Structures are given as C-alpha cells and as structure tokens.
Amino acid sequence: MERYNWTLEELVELYNQPLLPLVSKAQGVHAQNHAIDEIQTCTLISIKTGGCPEDCKYCAQSSRYQTAVKAEPMMGLEAVLEKAKEAVARGSTRVCLGAAWKLVRDSKQFDAVLKMVKEITDLKVEVCCTLGCLNEEQAEKLKQAGLFAYNHNLDSSEKFYKTIITTRSYQDRLDTLNIVEKSGLSVCCGGIIGMGETFEDRLQLLVTLGRRNPHPESVPINQLVPISGTPLGDQKKISTWEVIRMIALTRIVMPKTMVRLSAGRMEMSFEAQALCIFAGANSIFYGEKLLTVGNPSVDTDEEMLSLFGLKKRPAFKDASCAI
Ligand code: SAM
Ligand code: DTB
Ligand code: SF4
Fold first, then answer.
1. Ligand 2, from 209, 290, 292, 295: best to mutate by most atoms within 8 Å of Cβ?
2. How far is the CA of 175 from the centre of ligand 3 (A)?
3. 18 alpha carbon to ligand 2 midpoint, in Å?
4. Binding site membership of 62 for ligand 3 (Cβ less than 6 Å)
5. CA distance 275 to 278
6. What DSSP designation does 62 have?
7. Helical H runs in the chain?
8. Cβ–Cβ < 8 Å for 170, 178
9. Is residue 288 within 8 Å of 297, Cβ to Cβ?
10. Section 223-234 average pLDDT
11. Do 263 and 293 meet the contact criterion of CB atoms below 8 Å apart?
12. Is the minimum distance from the CB of 291 to ligand 1 under 6 angstroms?
C-alpha cells in the first residue's frame, strides 16, 4: 500500500534498525510490488555539457569552478540519435537527455530537443530529459513530443540544500516538479548522498518525496562522485552500508517507484550492488559514462546482471500511455 503521510520520526525509527532487518523489510516491499528478476537499464546522453550558470557545489559542469569539463556546444540531432540507437541496440530501455542549463529557453535549441525526444521515442524506449527549470508551456511541448519522464532532483533536505546551491531555491525545484507533474509527465526526482549531510537530511528528502501524491515514478539515489576543482572535490566517501540503508528506506517509503542506483557504482563491488538491488534498487545507468564521469562498462554490467539472474525490464511496462 502506498502512503503519503510519512514523518521524519518514523523514518528515523526505521533507519535505527540493524541493517539486516531493514534490508529484509525493504525486500518484502520490493517483492510485493515488482518483478524481482527485472532491472531497468537507462542510458544518459549529455546533449549540452558544461558552462552551467548554477553553482551546485558537487557539479563538474558549473562554470563557477575550474574542473576538467569544458563548456561544449549543444550536440546535433544526428549525433544524439546515433548515441541513442547505440544504447537501444545494447539493451537500454530508457534514454535520458541531460543539459547543463539553469532553465529551458524557448529557442532553436529547445526545438532541437523536442525533435530528439520525438525521434528517440520512435525507437520504442522511454525518454527522459533533465534540462533545469521549465514552464507549463514547455512541459506541454515536451509531453506532445512524446517525452515519458522529466528528471529534476531535490538532492537533499531543504536545510542542507541551501549550503550546496545558492543560485536557486528548494521552492524553485518544487515549483518545477509541480509543473512537470501537472503536464502528465512522469516525475523523476532523487538526491545525492555523501556531500557532508546528516542522516536526518537524507531521511528528510525521503519524507518530502514520500509525501508527494503520487510518489515520483523514479527516484535516483546518487553517491557523490567528488570532482576535482569543485568545493566538494575532497569529500570523503561514505560507507557502503549507508548507501544500502538509503536504498532500503527509499523502497519502503515509495513501494512502486523505480529506485535507481545511480552515480557512484564505479567504486562498488558486485557484492555491495547485490545488496542494494536486494534492498529494492531496480534500475541502473547503463553505459560507460554518466554525464561527465565514468560508469561501469556494459561488459561488466552484463556480467553482473547475468550473475544475479536479472533481465532487462521492458520499456513502458506499467505506463497507462504505452505506445
Ligand atoms: N542541470 C540539470 C539539473 O541540475 O537539474 C540536470 C543535470 S544534473 C547533472 C542531474 C543530477 O545529477 C543532479 O541533480 C545531481 O543529483 C546529480 N549529480 C551531479 N553531479 C554529481 C556528482 N558529482 N556526483 C553525484 N551526483 C551528481
Ligand atoms: C541523476 O540523478 N543522476 C544522473 C541523472 N540523474 C541525470 C546524473 C549523474 C551525474 C553524475 C555526474 C556526472 O556525470 O557529471
Ligand atoms: Fe548545472 Fe545541473 Fe550541474 Fe547544477 S547540477 S551546475 S544545474 S548541470
């Protein structure tokens, strides 16, 4: 049963359980709501890399910091389509297009994104975009072009968010999420752990997401990948047990949501990933690159999926608007 009245106290109590009872509870919820032998494979394409005016302290693409990532022009339609076709041929069932923009502007570039969405949707895969803030009209245009989901992360608790990003507010993010939801697009909204936040900040993010009705269709849980040159470049890695706990709690709070084990898998053993998947993660990014940082190779992931007995979840499985 889905619930929308989660409280921080409840989540703290769940979090304070020993690890295995917590994982066991999460696995129970997972098995009741999902095919436990399935995983969603999603490929990211960074259609506009770097030069972003926002100051997110974790990000390689912010123009505020000297990182190895340089601002690039937007990719052309053909190059994006080629990458998408390659991803689909390798078994991805969802393609996510990312742009390092503060917001969407009505422009030739946005028209090009609409074309990309249409053509990639025609490949019979779910298309997701993450382009920053957008207005109702733009959300509607994306929906008309066939877009399935829109990613816009809240990243952490409102209190901690203020210390990580100053160029926009938590409320700006919530406003965009409401616009996305209203337009009928699926909401993909998650966070990052390992930025120096407390466990209460992480749980507060889950309370905020879990109190949304409907719950987001997809919740990516990213582990910070420290980027040299950013203020969080020297941040210490958090314990894998914390990642497993976060995944388990996400699954318990949002039983039907796709929980994505996102950035940070390069550093994880198969054993650690097995526990995350057992605790309720049912989606991964697939392909050797995320937006700017590395991800396990397709060969490595294929080996892992076959070892775990996981098959790829078909596109549009639970969607009422299946094409
Ligand atoms: N610019 C858009 C935005 O911020 O909404 C979309 C792209 S942004 C890179 C998408 C998400 O990736 C961020 O919200 C953050 O959660 C995650 N992310 C970015 N840099 C990261 C890093 N170094 N480590 C882990 N996750 C990261
Ligand atoms: C999300 O939550 N994680 C993905 C996707 N949504 C867009 C992005 C991870 C980015 C990791 C850092 C990078 O590649 O620059
Ligand atoms: Fe820009 Fe998104 Fe990176 Fe923030 S996370 S600096 S908005 S690309």
1. 290
2. 17
3. 30
4. yes
5. 5
6. B
7. 8-15, 19-33, 77-89, 108-121, 136-144, 158-164, 170-182, 199-210, 240-253, 270-278, 298-308
8. no
9. yes
10. 97
11. yes
12. yes
Does the structure show a pLDDT above 60 at 321?
A: no
54 CA: nearest ligand 3 atom: 6
Q: What is the pLDDT of residue 65?
A: 97
- pTM, two decimal places: 0.96
Single-letter amino acid code for the residue at 190: G
Do 192 and 225 meet the contact criterion of CB atoms below 8 Å apart? no
Q: What are the C-alpha distances in Å from 61 to residues 45, 52, 174?
A: 14, 6, 22
pLDDT value for 319:
65
**Is 129 considered catalytic here?**
no
**Domain architecture of the chain: domains with CATH:** 8-31+39-295 (3.20.20.70)
Mean pLDDT throughout 242-247?
98
Per-residue pLDDT tens digits for 279-305: 999 999 999 999 999 999 999 999 999
Residues framing ligand 2 (Cβ under 6 A): 44, 60, 96, 98, 130, 151, 153, 190, 220, 222, 225, 262-263, 290-293
Asked whether the CA dihedral 165, 170, 175, 178 is positive or negative, the reply is: positive
* 104 has a pLDDT exceeding 50: yes
SS3 of 100, please?
coil
